[in-house]
Automatic annotation (TrEMBL), chain A:
It comes from the Bacteria. This is Beta-ketoacyl-[acyl-carrier-protein] synthase III. Residues 117-194 form the Beta-ketoacyl-[acyl-carrier-protein] synthase III N-terminal domain. Keywords: Acyltransferase, Cytoplasm, Fatty acid biosynthesis, Fatty acid metabolism, Lipid biosynthesis, Lipid metabolism, Multifunctional enzyme, Transferase. Residues 277-281 are annotated as: ACP-binding.
TrEMBL record, chain B:
It holds the Pfam family PP-binding. It comes from the Bacteria. This is Acyl carrier protein. Residues 2-80 form the Carrier domain. Carrier of the growing fatty acid chain in fatty acid biosynthesis. It comes from Zhihengliuella salsuginis. The gene is acpP. Keywords: Cytoplasm, Fatty acid biosynthesis, Fatty acid metabolism, Lipid biosynthesis, Lipid metabolism, Phosphopantetheine, Phosphoprotein.
Amino acid sequence: MTATLNQKPTNPGSRILGLGAFRGDVVVTNEDVCEWIDSSDEWIRQRTGIVTRRRASADVSLLDMAEGAAREALERAGIEAGQLGAVIVSTVTFPYATPSAAAALAERIGATPAPAFDISAACAGYCYGIAQGDSLVRSGTADYVLVIGAEKLSDVIDNHERTISFLLGDGAGAVVLGPSETPGVSPSVWGSDGAKWDTIGMTHSMLDLRDIAVAAENDPEGTALVAETEAKLWPTLRQDGQTVFRWAVWSMAKVAKQALEDAGITSEDLSAFIPHQANMRIIDEMVKQLKLPDTVAVGRDIADMGNTSAASIPLAMHRLLEEQPELSGGLALQIGFGAGLVFGAQVVRLP
Amino acid sequence: MASNEEILAGLADIVNEETGLEADAVQLDKSFTDDLDIDSISMMTIVVNAEEKFDVKIPDEEVKNLKTVGDAVNYIAGAQA
């Protein structure tokens, strides 16, 4: 006698039901940045399009930001935290390797015992989360999934270096995905390119930091320590900007086109284009490569927010919907790309 | 295959499109950064457009060696050969 296993009934589609945002409380201007690096407001604007970036105060944690975004998303979706079938936090800046930010967040918002886990996919993290959430909902594994991109990048930068730190900001964006009679999330086009693993990342590993700490303990005078550690004690982010720019524009334009094709639509069907907010020049060049019609609204939140990694797409989406509420219900192409290197793209119906 | 003169003319068009600089300003002895004021992001755009136009590959690590317009013309001519 062969037993047959039960399967959950599947859902025909998933869609974004609600969106929430939390922005760092401190405005950091280009003038502030020029206190740390030899640059100018004009130089920074010209090369990045950034006018200000928002960062969180010392007493505002990544979880605080994630919670703020999550509560707004739940409220707008009209869903109680207890109904959530999964909580996913995409982040690379939660200061514990384990346990996860998601488990702590689920408890904070009252979603326990929902499954909770983090995704490490840097600036593609939010789109990776949507890929996961969409699959969980459509497979019937979960009815409602909270997907959050949250970053406190100001904890992992060195304000005096000039490859990446001046671009970065802090924030969180959250969506609630739920079942839908018609598809509200297109097939995800996602992937990785580990051959470029070292083009964006930390200066050194946590094991190096441990070894430095051990050396310091054995060296109360501090002489060996100073000699040994020209590098900063605390690992911080760096990037090879030129290589990343080339990959971000020309490789990612192909991914974005593939996402449209897999969704079965053309750029004429889009209401909005919401790329990861890495650099205004990347956004402008992508718009050009994709030959987007003028009618498509483009997320350009980076000018005021800076690059907030996994949080940037939901934050830019939130702002577009605040400023142009008529976009609600329309289709948006979203694409995230970053350290890994990793990328992910989908077309979603805007809440 | 393009002659060096054709490569120079083609590059000048690409630079003009990216920066608005007059094509005449793009001469072999000009430095991309110092004379033409082209930043690293624009340089990458120019490189990718040149790859397409001349059907060559210009790897990332090669880009930093292309200091002058002449360097780029020579590299493209060599890559075509």
